[in-house]
Structures are given as structure tokens and as C-alpha cells.
Amino acid sequence: MSSTAVLPAGACPLENYLTQPDHTMDARIAAAREALGKTTLILGHHYQRDEVIRFAGITGDSYKLAKAGAESAADFIVFCGVHFMAESADVLGREGQQVILPDLNAGCSMADMAEIGQVEEAWRQLVRLGLTDDAGAGMTPMTYMNSTAAIKAFCGERGGLVCTSSNAKGAFAWGFARSPKVFFLPDQHLGRNTAFRMGIPLEEMAVWDPFQILGGNTPERLRKARVILWKGHCSVHQRFLPEHVDHVRAQYPGIHVVVHPECRWEVCRKADSIGSTEQILKTIREAPTGTKFAVGTEIHLVNRAAKLAAQQGKMVITLDDSGCLCTTMFRISPKHLCWALENLLEGQVVHRIQVSVEVKRWARVALERMLEIQA
Ligand code: CIZ
Ligand code: SF4
Question: Which domain covers residue 139, as residue numbers?
């Protein structure tokens, strides 16, 4: 993704900002935000760094932020998160609202693991095998929020939906109420952890590797499977291992291990609780004074939660002390934020994320189905 390709003529060049130290941006960001007033809403994802999230009007997970953007009266949504989140905000956004991603290189390695052409090819193979028809009568396609808008639209058009880590269980129940099988994209771990918690044994799940014929499965395996999991993962969460759980338990007897469902099945099996970012923060907030937590998710969230928890007499540490960082989230720097805001002040919209009308139509259907289901 080029950072200059979509710049309107007359935009202040980003290069002028990139040579400045981060901290020199603070006063300028605050002044630009003040001057833009209600026209502009800055959204900050939980995994953002402190220097950026402190300027967010609303913080949250991708679902909460996309909804907050759509419900706001602001004309410009400056999304401090990653590409798929800004796309979802554009899909759900009001007519006339414009969504800005301060650095176009802020992608998501998991979302990149499912490319629409590969997904369409997989589906053709499943249809040829007689496991579903094209409308999804035999199998409901379902995608995690962490996927491109094209994949969300693919699911919407075939009777399926989007889910988040907070409502994946409800989404699976919805899928199984309409068809005997579920095709889950792109995170194998969230899919496996959720299906397992619903009582589906591992033998009734198959993994679809997009680089192999029939995803690397025999037709019998696919016929038997109730859940087909796309072979994608989050490189940040996959770094947490079962031995990290053993290690913190030995070091801090009685510690509560809470992990994100993007972690491996073996890690989730050993944890005391599993939850989305919003759920992890709630678990810590509501725990009695003195509780100790080891948290398996992105390090910026963990560090902020630790500071807050310390004020309430609780302890929060990361599950793996090498600290799992989402490097793409980290790309949004105070310089990029300042650049986007100061351009807005000049009447220039830089790095707008705009989903095409055709993709938007079905992606919106899939997202709206998600909004109707229970967590
Ligand atoms: O959906 C999100 O915001 C992500 C990436 C994780 C979560 O659990 O909130
Ligand atoms: Fe993507 Fe993982 Fe980063 Fe979340 S933490 S945005 S899934 S790479």
C-alpha cells in the first residue's frame, strides 16, 4: 500500500512530519483536534500505543468503535486502528461520513491470510463436493471481524454473517440454526475455541489450507466436519504457549489467567477465562482487590490495564514476558495522527478508506446480521 497514492493535490506532505520527534506532535494534535471540534471523531483501538490513544474521543474494540463512528454526528472519523477496522467503519458509516486511516500500512497479518480469490475458490470446491449450494444452504460462511470487506460481503451474499470475539458463540449458534455446517474465516483459533466451547469435538472440525487441493482434506473428512476452519491466525496471539501458563502459575500461585480467543486451543484450555479485549478489561475491572492476573493479549492493552489495576490494588502481568506487540497497529504514530488532523484543518482528506458500493452492500448485510445476534 503506498502512503502517497491517494493524497489529494495540496495536502501537506507526510515527510515533513516523519522527520520530527513524536513528542513534538502532542501540542499540535491537541490544537488540531480542538479546532476541528465536533466535525471530527478520533477512535482508538485498545491495542494502540499510549501516545496515540490518549487523543481518542472513544476507545474500544473494533465492533464498539465501528458502531460509535456510525452513531456519531462527526463528518470525519480518524480511525487509529488497522485497515479492516476502518473499512468496517466505512461500511457501517452514515452517508457523507469519511473514514481516515492515518497510516495505510497499518494492516492485519491475520486479515491478510484470507484473500477473496482464495475464499471463492475454496467455496467452489465445497459446492462441487455437494456440501453446500452457492447460497449456503448446507454451510453458513462466517467471518471474524478481522477480515477484508470483500470477505464480509462474500459471507453476507451467501446467507452468512460477521462475528467478533465477544459474540462468536452467538454467531455459531445462528449459523447452526440455519445449516448443518459452518465455514469459519480467517482465524482457525477463534473458530476452534468457540466451536469447542459449544461442545463440538475436534474430530468434527477440519482445517482448510488455501494452498492445497480441498484445503488439504479428504472428501470424507470434509463431509464429517461440522466446522471448517480457515488456516489463518494472529501472529501476535499465536506466540502465547501452554508453557507460559504453567510458568506464571508456578511463579504466582492462584493467579487468574485470562486470554484472548485468538490464542491457541491448548492455551485457552489451560486458562481460567477467555475473552475479547472488552471482556478481558471488564474481568479485571470487576475483580476483587488483591486479584492477580496474567493476560494473554497485545502488550499495550496489558500495560494500560496493569497501571489501572495497580491503582485498585490488583496485579496484572503479561502471560509471556517477551511482550507480544501488534507491529501493524504500532504503525499509527503521533506523526501520522497529526498529519491527518492538520490536513483536515486545511480541508484535505488524506488516506481515506472507501469500500466500493457493491462490496459495501453485502458487507453491510453481514455486519447487520451480527448486530442482531446475542453475545
Ligand atoms: O475486535 C477487536 O477489536 C480485536 C482485534 C480484538 C478484540 O477482542 O477486541
Ligand atoms: Fe491483526 Fe493480530 Fe494485530 Fe489483531 S493483534 S490487528 S489480529 S495482527
Answer: 111-235
